Amino acid sequence: MLVLGIETSGSEVSFALGDRPNITREAVYTTSFDLSQHIITWIDALFTSAGCSPADLTAIGVSLGPGGWTGLRVGVATAKALAQGLCIPLVGVPTFTGLACALASEVGEGTIVPLACGRHNEVLAQVYRVENGDVVAQREPRPYSIPSLCESMKNLLPPVTLCGEGFLKHQQELAAGFPASRDTCPAVCRAGMIVARLRRDGVDRPLPALDEIKPLYLMPSQAERQAGIVVTG
Predict the structure, then answer these.
(1) Distance CA 130, CA 95 (A)
(2) Are 141 and 126 in contact (CB under 8 A)?
(3) Residue 108: left (phi > 0), alpha (psi -120 to 50), or beta?
(4) pLDDT in tens, the chain (233 residues)
(5) Whole-angstrom Cα distance, residue 123 to residue 113?
(6) What are the extents of the domains in the chain?
(7) CA distance linking residue 67 with residue 61, whole number of Å
(8) CA-to-CA distance for 84 and 88, rounded, in angstroms?
(9) How far is CA 80 from CA 6, 44, 70, 83, 231, in A?
(10) Taking the domain 3-94+189-216, which CATH number applies?
(11) Cα separation, 16 vs 26, whole angstroms
(12) DSSP symbols for the chain
């Protein structure tokens, strides 16, 4: 089972190829608004380095966000085009879920709060509880100011582990507002985590149609902000 993972929700994008039992290749790039010009080239380079081709794939996994509007749109659109062209399954994995599940074995029992960068000084956050190896979402992802997030975390069951790009950006403020938290590594979601999730869950199950797989933006695009449109998901 050869799986391609695509993760484009943050300031760094990554692509991974995974076959049982390990991740075969993973590549990470720092990106900006030129992602659409490079994404196919970067994926092609990954196949070349691994000595295989897209025809060898059995499935594709793509990170759905939350995260940056442009990165998610380009990543999901590319994944859909590849899956449709190759006639293989596409599985969308929420970014926070992929990160929380990857960290569950390291954290053990406790609470994981992945954070992404939001507008201005906000973060996007979701709460997961880890019990007996199972990762269960406790709240829906949503934007928070740093003070409101710190206040809301006071009621979470300890220990509370913070991770993600939003944590890296606001680490000092979060430590001051919620000193009971702890950080862990790896801190951000990578395509290898998407691949690992897909290989664990498999694709021999009912999956959404391609047109039902949509990014979880939470943040509006520039055009939507100018038009006064509110994005809810």
Answers:
(1) 17
(2) yes
(3) left
(4) 899 999 999 989 999 999 866 678 999 998 766 899 999 999 999 999 999 999 999 999 999 999 988 899 999 999 999 999 999 999 999 999 999 998 888 888 889 999 999 888 899 999 999 988 889 999 899 999 999 999 999 989 888 999 999 999 998 999 898 887 776 655 788 999 999 888 888 888 889 999 999 999 876 555 444 555 454 44
(5) 11
(6) 3-94+189-216
(7) 16
(8) 7
(9) 11, 16, 16, 5, 22
(10) 3.30.420.40
(11) 4
(12) --EEEEE-SSSEEEEEEEETTEEEEEEEEE--TTHHHHHHHHHHHHHHHHT--GGG-SEEEEE--SS-HHHHHHHHHHHHHHHHHHT--EEEE-HHHHHHHHHHHHH-SEEEEEEEE-STTEEEE--EEEETTEEEE-S--EEEEHHHHHHHGGGSPSSEEEESHHHHHTHHHHHHH-TT-EE-SS-S--HHHHHHHHHHH-S-S----GGG------S--HHHHHHTPPP--
Report the greatest alpha carbon distance in the chain: 51
Q: Which two tokens stand for residue 212?
A: 């039902």
The two tokens of residue 94 are 């929420």
Identify residue 178 by its one-letter amino acid code: F
Structure tokens at 207: 């999956």
> Which token pair is 145?
């100011």
- Cβ-Cβ contacts under 8 Å for 210 (sequence gap 6 or more): 80, 83, 84, 90
- β pairing state of 142-145 and 90-93: unpaired
